[in-house]
Amino acid sequence: MNIQSVDGGRRPVLEIAVQDPDGAAAAMAAGADRLELCTGLSTGGLTPSIGLVEAVVAAAGPGRVHVLVRPREGGFVYTPAEVDVMVRDVQALAAKQGVGGVVIGALVDGGALDVDATTRLVAAAGELEVTFHRAIDVCPNPVEVLDGLIELGVTRVLTSGGAARSIEGIDTIASLAARAGDSLVIQAGGGVRPQDIPTLVSAGAKAVHLSARRAENLAGPSGHGGGAQSYSVTDPDIVSAAVAVLTSL
Questions:
Q1: How many C-alpha atoms does 122 have within 13 Å on its Cβ side?
Q2: By residue range, what is the domain housing residue 121?
Q3: Which of 141, 195, 225, 231 is most buried (CB neighbours < 10 A)?
């Protein structure tokens, strides 16, 4: 398992959450190292369609796109039928040329790791990298969850340290990074601003995750079933600012 930083370890990895091919192209052109692809970022992210996956992989290049597998909004405790869907989605992604990894998360009532579901998802991923997402941030015992993920061979954990914004969860991020050591990567995410990055990296985060979004107003009609008058797009200026900070470390 290769969990080195970018450029032979010269700087930590920058991952940008994107929702479309234009956002993927903008983020990569601005210097992103990796993309997390999802839809519905405003709900925490949902599984994208295979067509969208193919288009974003084409825009970003092979190995750069890690795809969120989350069948619905509203927590991370899933029914057996929902887990079956997630496993099928991961298997489909593993068969797609150019996908670099999957982003998953499943808990049981009470907030402990769903070991059975996670084991199945990791197995379905095959050679793909596996990131466990911010489901860990709602767990009462994140260290226990981390230990389980290390045992299952997960590549990285995306976490805000249990806070609304990662900079506010810095102590927990530091504790998780110390516990993980070189067994997996702790990736800081959740309201990350470029100016937060040095503190997050100093705490032990080997990668940082930003949505890097701004609102775009619609030119055409909307409302009455068409949604809001604006939508979020990837802002390359935010990506470039994050790259500049990481490069300076």
A1: 19
A2: 11-248
A3: 231
CA-wise closest residue to 68 among 44, 102, 99, 95? 102
Domain assignment present for 28: yes
Backbone angles phi, psi at 61, to 5 degrees: 100, 160
What is the percentage of the chain residues whose pLDDT exceeds 90? 86
Task: Give the bridge partners for 185, in sequence order.
Answer: 156
What is the domain-level CATH number for residue 211? 3.20.20.380
Give the span between the Cα atoms of 202 and 182, in whole angstroms.
16
Q: Is the pLDDT of residue 112 over 60?
A: yes
Residue 181 counted as domain residue: yes
Q: What is the pLDDT of residues 127-166, one digit of tens each?
A: 999 999 999 999 999 999 999 999 999 999 999 999 999 9
DSSP type of residue 49: P
Q: What pTM, to 2 d.p., does this model score?
A: 0.92
In a domain, 2, yes or no: no
> What gap in Å lies between CA 12 and CA 199, rounded to an integer?
13
Q: Tally the domains of the chain.
A: 1
